[in-house]
Each structure stands twice: as C-alpha cells, then as structure tokens.
Amino acid sequence: MSQIPPYLSAIAVEKIYLKSQHKIPVLRGVDFHIRRGELVSIIGQSGSGKSTLLHLMGLLDKPTIGEIHIEGQRVDDLPAATRDELRNRVFGFIFQFYHLLPELSVLENVLAPLMIRDSTLTYWRNRHEYETRAREMIDKVGLSHRLKHRPSELSGGEMQRAAIARALVAEPSILLADEPTGNLDAQTGRGIIDLLKKLNAEQKLTVVMVTHDESIAAQAGRIVRLANGRLQRLEEAAA
User: Fold this and answer.
1) Which residue, of 44, 53, 61, 170, has the greatest Cβ tally within 10 A?
2) Predicted pLDDT of residue 152
C-alpha cells in the first residue's frame, strides 16, 4: 500500500538560542513529518522543545540548522514577506493565553486576521462576505450568543473557542495549537479537544497540538514524544 506523502515536514532541524555568550540547544536534529488531514499531538515536559518545534513548523521562527518543507518545497529560507504571506494563508494558530484584543468584541476579534491580511479597500469590498464567514465560524464553535461580548465578559473556555474561530476564519489548511487547554479546567479542556477532533474529522483539517498532558495527547491519532530536544518515538494513539 502506497504511503501518503508528507504535507508538512521538519528535516534535521536544530534550534540554538544565544544567551550572553552561551549557546543553548533546544532542538537537536529532529525529523518530523505530518500527513494532510492528520491530528497529531506533540508531547513532552517543559523545556523539551515541543513549542519551539511548533513555532518553526509554523514559520514563526527559523531553524538554526535544517529545513521546513510544505508539500516537498522548502519554505523556511523564503524572503520574510513571502513567509508572512504563506503563514497567513496556510496556518492557523491557537495559544494557551488566547491573545484576544480586549477592546474588540468576539466578532471583531474573529474578523481581525482578515483585516490584517487584506488592504483596507479589499477588506471593505468583501466585508459582508467576511462577516458572514466569521459569524458561521463563531456558530461552529458554539459562541453565536456571544457575538458582541468582549473578552473580559467571557469564560476561559469561551475565550479559547473565540481564539479557535479567529484561527480558522481565514480558512487555513493546518491548525497549530500550543497547549490549547493549558489554562482551562479539565471539563472545559475536554470540550476544546472534542471541538478540534470534530473539525479534524468533518473538515479534514490538519491539526498539530502541543501538550504536556498524556490524557490530552491520547485524543490525537498519532503521538510524537520529545525529550531534551530529540524525538523519542512516534506512536498511534489508542482508539
């Protein structure tokens, strides 16, 4: 049986940070491949390099050594403007701390990536289409009753759902989630993971999720373990 080719790849990736005169290695020669439509979890303790790997694969940072490929094409060495455009078009990001703009409503926060992506003229020309898309995405994450609320009026779970809607409104093909349940209680966290699983199953959205929680990692179709900046093993999660 032929294997599905990788969609997103890290190839022999190393990342070294400089602190004063000291070199601090974070990733040490990681090879990691993701197929289109997968739900993959990257698990490891604090300092293992899992968030760094996610940031490199999402073009938020560049590897010290090694390459990042999308559909077999190297992308980490592209000009900054091209990487910015690719990141906006291909990736959606959700983080542990939500990063919602406090002065904006849920609807305005979800629309923000489209405002940033387009020129003012293009945005206003398409604003009705964009607002319809944003409302549909907000409904999909179960927040239709919170459209006009600001982040300070939302619970932690609602803020994370708003952040997911914002990440998906530009219709990315890959969602990168860095500790998406880290600030939530267990029950609310399970709801967020169920939502990501539903998006993966129904929309074939490729999801890569960083976590330190074994029970969260087990919800993915495949688990990647990192320790001391090295890939330890890959395993299929339990059904």
Assistant:
1) 53
2) 93
Q: Which residues of the chain have pLDDT under 50?
A: 1-2, 238-239
CA angle in degrees (0–180, nearest 5) for 41-138-189: 35
State the DSSP string of the chain: -PPPPEEEEEEEEEEEEEETTEEEEEEEEEEEEEETT-EEEEE--TTSSHHHHHHHHTTSS--SEEEEEETTEE-TTS-HHHHHHHHHHHEEEEETT----TTS-HHHHHHHHHHHHS-HHHHHHSHHHHHHHHHHHHHHTT-GGGTT--GGGS-HHHHHHHHHHHHHTT--SEEEEESTTTTS-HHHHHHHHHHHHHHHHHH--EEEEEES-HHHHTTSSEEEEEETTEEEEEEEPP-
Which residues are CB-neighbours of 34 under 8 A, at least 6 positions away? 6, 7, 8, 9, 40, 57, 174, 206, 208
> In this predicted model, what pLDDT tens digit does every residue of 155-187 receive, in sequence order?
988 998 899 899 988 889 999 999 888 777 888
pLDDT of residue 144: 92
User: 61 and 231 in contact (C-beta within 8 Å)?
Assistant: no
What pLDDT score does 235 carry? 56
